[in-house]
Amino acid sequence: MAAALPDRVDCAHLADDGAVLERVYPLGEMPRLRDLLADAHGAVHVRFTFARLGSGHAGASVAVEASPRLVCQRCMQGFAFAAAGSSEIEFSNGLGWGAPDSPREVYATDEGWVSLRELAEEELLLALPIVAMHAAQTCEARSYGEAAAVQDMSGDRSRPFAALQDLLKKT
Predict the structure, then answer these.
(1) What is the predicted pLDDT for the residue at 142?
(2) Cα–Cα distance between 100 and 96 in angstroms, integer?
């Protein structure tokens, strides 16, 4: 039986080797993502391509693909969202390091070590919408169907201000 692949890796060592790693992480293992999900089923597929940058620093290209079930903020129902994203990362040994005009995202490491799962989770969060919603037609159709069912159950349409109108006539 093969040993489990490590999650924490040495960025500089992988960049020197020009390593390419592919990983699959269950969505349920990503704590920052849990509150956005309708359920924790599914996985994120990640590809890490490490390299030495022109500046000599370690860097990586991180690409994610997933289809998490998010909660629509209009109708509060779950729906599958096809998420894909990629970023160019430059690894930093401390806060405030990195060229301000760099086209790459600066990612702080723990003395040169980084958690691949956390890096994948960060990239997936960037690929998700700020406010998750179905297509407008889907939510409207669902809302219309629910409203029609409520109206059919009541039988008649009540007029909540009818009593107020009678009071105004008496004065």
Answers:
(1) 58
(2) 9
